[in-house]
Amino acid sequence: MAPAADQEDALFLPKKPTRDTLQSSLYLKPKPRSVGATTGGMQTRRILTNPPLARGPQSNEDSTTRRDAVTHGRGTITTKRHESTAKRVFQGASVFDAVDVDSNASDTGSDDPKLPTGDEYLEALKHLRLDDPSGSRFVYLKRLVLSQTHHDPYALITIEFADLGGGDEYYTMSALGITHFAKGRDAEFTSAQRWLRERALFTQTRSLSTFKRFRTWKGFVTWRTVVRRTKMKRASLVLEKNLFQLDVSLASAATEVRAACHALSSARLSSVTPGGLRTLEEFTNEAETRRVEMLERLEAFSKHTIQVVDKACASALAATERRLRDFFGAGESAPSTSFAVDDDATAKTAGSAALLEYAYTVTATRRTEQRRLVSFVKQLDYVIRDTLRFVLHDSVTDVLAATRQCPVGKFETPPPPFRQRLTHLWAQLGFTRMATAVNRNQRAQNARGGKAKSAETTRRLRELVREAMRENEYRKKEARLNSFAPTHPTLPNFRLKLEVKDNALCFVPNAETFQSAIQRVVHDFAHTLASVRRLPGDERLMSKMRDAFAADAGADAGDIGAGTTLHELQTDVTHLSLCDEVNRALRFGFAFAREYRTHYESFRLMAVSNRAIDLFEMVSKYRNGQIPLDEFRRKQITWMDQETRLQDLRVAQNVGIVQIDSTEFRDATTPSPIGKIAEMRETLPKLARDAYAEFIAEIHDATAKLSTRLDAAQELCDRMRFVQHLREGHMDVLTKRAEECAALYALVREFSFAVTDASAAEFATSEKDFNLLKTVLEDAEGTQEEKISLFASELEDRIKEVNREARELVKAASDETILDPDSGREKVEKLLRDLTLRAESTTAESQKINTIQVTFGSCETVFDVLKEAAADVALKVAAWAGDGAFDADVLVWAKTVFDKIDVPRMTDKMGGYVKLSARLEKGLAPNKMAQRFAAKVEDYKNLLPVINALLNTSMKQRHWDKVAALIGVPIVRDDFFTLQKILDLKAPAHGEAIGLVSTEATQEQALEEMLHKVVAKWADVCFQVVPYKESKDTFMLGGIEEISIALEDSMVTMSTIMSSRFVKGIRETVEKVEAQLSLFSETLDEWLAVQKNWMYLETIFSAPDIQRQLPNEAKQFFAVDKQFRDVMRKTRENDNALRAGTTPGYLQSFQNANEALDKIQKNLEEYLETKRMAFPRFYFLSNDELLEILAQTKNVQAVQPHMSKCFDGIKTLDFGSDPKSVDIFAMVSPEGETVGLGKNLKARGNVEQWLCAVETAMIDSLRKQSKASYLSYPKETRTEWVLNQPAQVVIMVSQIYWCRGVVAALGAKDVTGAMSTYLAKNRADLKDMTVVVRGQLTGLHRKIIAALITIDVHARDIVEELFTEKTQSANDFKWQMQLRYYWDEEIDLCSVSQTNSSFEYAYEYLGAQSRLVVTPMTDRCYMTLTGAMHLKLGGAPAGPAG
Q1: Which residues pair with 157 in a beta bridge?
Q2: Other C-beta atoms within 10 Å of 592: how many?
Q3: 1058 — phi, psi (to 5°)?
Q4: pTM above 0.85, yes or no
């Protein structure tokens, strides 16, 4: 309930319902309000003049004065004014001291002040109470009828007595009150105070919605009751006339058709049931059989229904004819009408003249009955169509029930089709058993005595029991692992065979084919049901209603059932949904079957892996030591396990709705491990036999070598080396081979492979033969020393023979004819060949002797003479061979075409000849042969530089011309241009000059290669042309980093080439390429600049608002835009960078475009500057942000993201729930605080204009909020008041009243006492706020109170400081230095003062920002800043708190 003062105000100043309230209650469309119309609260007129009190006409002057008074300034009545007025009225003071009359007190009141409102008599009452308190004077009143629907007993008007006219009802009014006179009733007196109170109560009561809408709703309810009764009666008559169930013939036909439909509804188009397993062929055959049966049943259904309906329609038409005959009578005067109802019959009238008189009525009656029958047919057709839909839905539902037997999310995956084993557990159990058995055997050996053995027996039994229990536990775990008991069991419906084709697992038929076949069958359901013949399609039946169709122009029987049955069934929403569900179920079922198929992949890979294993290759690798023997064991165990797993494979595995038949897959895969086992059965025994045969043969051979009689020192040497070979490791090798043979035969026995008795017997003697070898080896080692002494004398004789032969060889090689160049070459070469053979044989004998000496352990003999002789012979042989080879090479080189000479090979050979010459000079005594050879080699050696220079591949024709100019003879390079011709031209004499020409050619070639690399590089460098945003026909250059790097590298390369002194020969080409690259570089720079500016401006000028505001700039931009888009399209078609960048005209075009875009940007900047000048807060936004707003002037929401930059305390504006609304209701701070902006604030026109309006509304709204809060602060408790105000207003008003309190305390007589009291009040306020902040608050209110507490703490500190320092006057600097807030009552504004500075409060919305603790430093900052502002200066606080 409102406070008492508010109730009294409400009683005295009743409110009128607003336009919006009436519109909402009457469902009226609101009319647009005129601009500037007042929509605020209560409007009042203050009566300032005194109207005439008694009878008599009013003068024009009085009327004018009264009208002026009534229309005097209008505004909102404040709460304080209401309160004071109500108090004066109800405290017995002069009730008319300040009367505020509501201009809207009457619902029918007009804005025209000339029309009476029924309240004017109150002014007369005021003057009566002032002028005649005794009540001796009075005036006459009568009731003012405002409207026919409106009754207000307190709406009266003053009249003259003569105007009463003997009325039955009137009033008299004096200063004491009002008396009511009515015919037949006693006069009723009401005091003035009571009359005013009752009038106010009546006005308040009438403003309630119940009473305000009473008359409107009373009429509406009455109207609704009448309309409902009339419609119900009309509907009952229509039903009685048209309801088919009331017609016996039609009712029986409808019942029979419904019975047939009911019987048909149980039919199903498919016999698919969960668990009915079938192959694709069985499924398709079954579906086809069911389809044929269903077609026969549907045909019988069609015939039956058409026959029943046809009979019923004929009966109804006959009954109509009988009624017509009975109505007209059977006499001669009655029309004689034919009542035949055959297909082609037409009712004809004949007979009397009455026929002509009633012919139209008869025809109309027949036509009406036929239309009724058309409706009947249509209704039954609907029933049949619904039945077909039900059959279709149920049939598809049955398929769905079979294909989706459980929800997809709850489907449980069956285990693999093979038995899963806990391999790691069984391996652990086996290892434990082995370790326990070893420990058990050791304990049994150590047990002594009967008690120990008995305890050991007991312990052994316990261990065996534990092992058995563990084994049983593992078996149970395996059983649980392989068991499958799903919560939602699924029965299979479709069988798929699993086979291997093209080295891949596949289903036969494949899952896609099966799925498609099922979907095709389901799709054919609609086609099958569409075979039903529709009732409107039967010509014989519909011909009975041809008069109805003839009367309805353009209508025919086909219009009744528009749309084919097939189309209706296929497009049925439920059917489509069910089909989608079936398709999803099939996709899931078959997809899961395909996924489950991966479990069989291991068996397929097993077969593939087995095919890749070649046992012969394994045997070869085993013999080479690449694989161990255990590899054969592992393979055999693997193949045996594979055979077992394949035998245990479940060939019929249920996987959801699919059963996988893997019989053929298993039959095709099983031969793989079986075949490998059979192959191993043959290979392993053979490997054992071969290994044993090789081993025993080597044993026998070694035994024979050690047992043979020795006849020479060489034989003893061989035996000693063989013994050493055996002792140095070969015996260990033989031992390992013996062990491998034993392991092979053990492996053969392990797998029970067949071995012949002969092989087994031979293997049994291997150990005996190996022991014999060991014995013979020991005997051979024992007799070595004896044998060495026996053959020592023989070795001395052989040494002497070798020395003698060496001396003879030296003598023979010293023959002078060998080094005489004039000696016959053939004779000398024959002599040298003989000497070479003698030297080689003697050297071989010496090496054998040294080998025997090393074996016997004696010192080696050094044959120095032999070595010198052999070296001398070899050097002389090389001299004669090198001389002959050199002459032959020179001859070949001289005859070879010069360009075909193999210079590297010539150089290599000449290097060899030079080395040989040096060896001859160093190793032989001075002789003519060596000197002549050295001279020839030296001469030819000097020719090589010239040959190399002339054969330089870099030599061009211009270089050859320079060589010819040096020689002085033209050079013709043809097939006859040989090396000999070069020599004949005496080219070697100009070798140095020819070398310079060759060097020049080489350098030019290097420059050309560099140039070629540059040209080749740009042949492959292409622009990366990418679509612009999401456009399909607009492109832009993508990343150009690679192009920039390539261009920079190329320019550096071209600078290097141009700076070379060898560029003269290719300068023209180089300058051309350099100019092209320079053009490309300049064009690319302009191109990128255009693209950058275009991308920036394209977004701006694509907005219609910008185009409209900058038409000239938009026209210039679109000209550049068209040009740029054309260039980019051409570049996309031909994206080579260099060709595109050097296209003629591009550079100038881009330069012009850049100039145009720069000009556009400049104009754009000027345009933005005009906007910023219109709304200076736009300076806070960047160009891009401002353009984003201006480009969407019609979208007022576009300004929302930037509001926080324009207004520090406004995050967004509240445009209401409608996103297209232009009404601005409030501003919202970043903290979520919402402050209203008044009414009629709209975002229309230019954005800067309505933003200026927002700024003005912000200031006005805060000003009004501040004033209202200022007035309400003393009336409410502070803890309640702070929760009803905006945060900014809370701080401001609180500071105003705080300053007022401080000033009042400083102005009191007892300043100290007043200050102490005020300090206590400040502390109490803080305590109250502390209690509030600890309660349940919203986040916003908590922020507001936290900020208020921060300021209140500072205020308390100031008051405490004033009290402590005993400040006595408001003019003391201690008080003047504080930041003070005051309220100016005259202008209703807040002002802020500090020291001698004073400013008006700016009313800039700040939101609900948090406040930092106010420190002395903060106060000094405030004082400095306000002083600077007072001096028209500025300030910029900085620091951690600023």
Answers
A1: 142
A2: 19
A3: -65, -30
A4: no
